[in-house]
Amino acid sequence: MTTVHPVDRAPLRVAAAQVTAVPGDLAGNARMAAECIAEAAARGVHLVVFPELSLCGYDVGLLRDDIARCAVEPDGEPLEVVAEACRTHRVVAVVGGCLRRAGGWVIGALVLGADGGLAAGYDKRHLDRDEREFFVPGHADTLVEVRGWRLGLGICYDSSFPEHARALALAGADAYLCPSAFQTGDSDHRRGVYFPARALENTCYVVFANFAGSHGSWEFAGRSAVYAPDGRVLADAGRGPGLAVADLDDAVLRRHRDALRMLADRAAPAPPPAAVPVRAG
Fold this sequence. Notes:
Blueprint: E1 12-18, H1 26-42, E2 47-49, H2 60-66, H3 77-89, E3 92-101, E4 104-112, E5 118-123, E6 143-146, E7 149-153, H4 162-170, E8 175-179, H5 186-202, E9 205-209, E10 214-215, E11 218-219, E12 225-227, E13 233-236, E14 242-248, H6 250-259, H7 262-265
């Protein structure tokens, strides 16, 4: 486990981009992402995280009827539009789309460097019931480094599993980046529980990017946010389109990890317990 950080590591300014995508309009959604990157750069942002399936939109009906229409090709024009914005503004971006793999379609997150190059990717490992109809799960975690900061990737339902973010934290992640598609209602309630919990229990920053507006019959909850390592909200985009911008600060991270010792003090897993009979009645 890595818990020691460079003393003079500069803050990393991040943004969770809360957008309303048009399902199936990869070209239009890419242009919108490029505009967000330009806006973020004007605010001094180094890294922008977009929602789950941000380039194709998250519309279950479209995915069921024509998933190939949602395909993001590594050398395709939509991704190049985003890459050019990254190059122009010297910003790293995490965007999402449907990707073809040997075993089937995956929900992918693609990391574009400040030079516009495709630096890394992550395939969503935990699929909910609807997604299993169209997608296969990924099998590996991804940790990237940006300006000396180690950043772990998750996508939406991954955040429902504490062990996913915990494994990344134990591998040295300073922050958990989570493109998502949480809806209004019960889904919004879970959103409000998961992300501050993942931040606090792992004493790491969390960057949560969600959609605003609706895709098909789904109404999205918004509330994209950046959370501090103690679970407090540093920035919140509200319900409409916008950016949640905050700094990842090394002194703050060290202070929380000095005070909140969960990573250092955790006990080794216990063997499975046997049931102990208890007399009742």
